[in-house]
């Protein structure tokens, strides 16, 4: 025990002595957290629309003003030429073109169905889908008004209708930030923890100090534990700090039990840091470690479900996620914080990670060679 | 110095693929002596010293260090030896005190004992003011001397020094050898590799390695007599040419 | 010149000797492309839903059938009571519960209206929003069919055309995005680390006293990475085309030239980072933090820039990948020529000049 304590103390002295690394470890993640959480939203606020009004009638103007009145659309140009409008779309300056053809009002008044054309810039399919949906809302609204104003002219038809009501649980305002913040936090603490742990041993190899340790009677598990604990503490601390910031600045809900969350985080970090140490024991230069960890990190992050639901991923990807520690924690941190899931709800993930941690750490201890 | 062997090496062979780094080495080191392990760069000195320290496993041969078998009792050997590698090996971003506390702590010395010995060390070397200096800020000569002091801080029975004086000036080298003598006086067996032939003169016995084999092993005086020359340099040149 | 060539050769050896590093460097673009193509789709697929059917009549069964027949949803559980809703949300898999009111068919027939409640697990707001929209669309589609498409007079019927991407594929987003991400990270991170490595191991000093000029040393270190990144760029374009059908409608030469420009920019950024960082660790953390998440999140790769708060939109203006993504989208998808992207190209060139000037300045200060 004392030996482990001595290694831990030495690591901490070295971490806190490095005046360039310290701000990188402590400040940078939180700057990122604060900035990036704001970026992560699909909420449409400003759809730029260009109008080609070839009708120039009261009705066409009325339709246009409906779009103007919608919080989603910004009319940023109108033209008579199709070509000019297409150029706007081509140059990426506008997201949608509304074309009102000649004879629009005439058709409408004569009681026929009148066509308008919507040209949506669909390079981003998700955005295009939403843009389309919002413009349909505006047009449906216009249609409803036409009917109610002209009930005397139009014969009312009795239609069946299903009244759909929505309720958004756990997040009635559909605030995306409270979902992204825990996800980004997981990434940040993992990057810090896993990389620091991974670079640590290999750095001692590069500097030659590892030889000096290898001629001492220190035991392999003592060494690995001594290397693991400092970064584990730092990562846990950063998780706590990040959550505090999230609570103060974004008012993220903390519905569940923090004990459960930190208990789970503790096991998760054993896996993440253990993987780092395992790579570290196998590599001989920091460069190798960085590239290898970076590769897995990028892959695992993208597959973890941070941006998109894991359930929508193909089967093989969900199978890969069995060995992706991110996927477990990404899911659990959101469940506990936002929905208040208890230990019973996350026990499967917890025990899976526990076994995972045991395997990885044993491998790291086994793979660490005091003898070349 | 006694004639009781503390290191016994029989038919040590170490191969890296087809390359034979150590070719059937046989020698004994006696308790309390300063044993010089000489040879040109690449002769196989570092390979042998790393095997004796338990950093590398031999391909074959019987080896016994401090009474323990090198295959089965590596960790017991490690309790009884100190090692100073070619590559400088104190932590540059720790102070002298922190380095000592770390290494001595790993060997299981109590805090009280560490402080006592540290005061002692600083006094002998007259470097009380270096205690809280970062190792990285010290000149190379001091780093080497301190690395040596740390290597014997836990009072091992044997200390292995791999080219300890590489790259330092002659005066510092002289001071370094004073430290070695002092350690030997305290009863520590010294196993030192070097390619400076003048340093060979300071050793009780020297072995000379050429191309992975030990070509000669005797006291410096004995060697000079055998080869009928006046200094170790010439002994070495003769041996090197012969191969 | 001969020494210089020798030096470049040494750098190539250094990179190509280690198979693990090489595997990573060439594996990254392939893996990321596959991941973005198959895994990180923003399309909603196979979402687990539960149904709480308090009516259990023909109509509710029919609507349920319609919902689970779609690719979007999988029926995972039939609930019996309200209390179960909370439970299924907490264990995590089910994202939406569809609740039919009692006597659904009866009410629909008698009063012409009946109620469905959609309860979404909105902890993931984006997905919840999409799911609810899709479900309502399926339901209203069903209702409309029941009404046998009665055309109302005095109505506008919009005709929608999805320009540039008729079938709403996500490939148009992720191929340019992946390209920007990979080129940025491979080039900037690798160079900054490899230069910082020379510093950390003390070999930089040896190089600096050699007859090579400092500029030659830097260029020599960078050239192998230009080659590597360029191979990566080509790999992405080819794979994007073969596997995902990403077109190159514009000029291929222009596309490659712009890629080369972006690579050079990323490398100069890498050099700048290495002038600040003393150790490999510092270089790596700066590159990773300054480049990875911001490139993913602030470049318009996944999240549209127009939706971000104004401050972030301003920050996005200084993100080089943003301009590169605009450029390659223009060339690959819209098939536009240089006339449409010269402004963005100039921005990239200007940024590169700034990075180089800053590095030179920093480097000189250090030498003094």
Mean pLDDT across the residues of chain C is 83
Given helix and strand content, the structural type of chain C is: alpha/beta
Query: Would you report the number of β strands of chain B?
Result: 10
Helix proportion of chain C: 55-70%
Profile the largest sheet of chain C. 4 strands, mixed
Measured distance between first and last alpha carbons of chain B:
33 Å
Beta-strand content of chain C? 5-15%
**In terms of per-residue confidence, which ranges of chain C show pLDDT below 50 for 5 or more consecutive residues?**
none
Question: How is the quaternary structure best described?
Answer: heterotrimer
Number of domains of chain C: 2
- From the alpha carbons, calculate the radius of gyration of chain B and give it in angstroms: 18 Å
Please tell me about this protein's structure:
- The complex is a heterotrimer of chains A (372), B (243) and C (368).
- Chain A is an alpha/beta fold and 372 residues long.
- In chain A, 65% of the residues lie in helices and 10% in strands.
- Chain A has two domains: 2-40 and 174-367, no CATH class; 47-154, 3-Layer(aba) Sandwich (abc type-2 transporter like fold).
- In chain A, helix 8 packs antiparallel against helix 10 (220-250), helix 8 (177-207) runs parallel beside helix 11 (258-282) and helix 11 runs parallel beside helix 15.
- The model of chain A has no long low-confidence stretch (mean pLDDT 86).
- The longest helix of chain B has 16 residues, at 170-185.
- By secondary structure, chain B is α/β, with parallel strands linked by helices.
- Chain B starts with a strand and ends with a helix.
- In chain B, helix 6 links the parallel strand 7 and strand 8 (189-194).
- In chain C, strands 2-1-3-4 form a four-stranded mixed β-sheet, with helices on both faces.
- In chain C, helix 9 crosses helix 10 and helix 10 packs antiparallel against helix 13.
- Chain C starts with a helix and ends with a helix.
- In chain C, helix 3 links the parallel strand 1 (47-53) and strand 2.
- Chain C is an alpha/beta fold and 368 residues long.
- The longest helix of chain C is centred in the middle third of the chain and has 31 residues, at 214-244.
- The interface between A and C is large, with 119 and 121 residues.
- Strand 4 of chain A pairs parallel with strand 5 (156-163) of chain C, so a sheet runs across the interface.
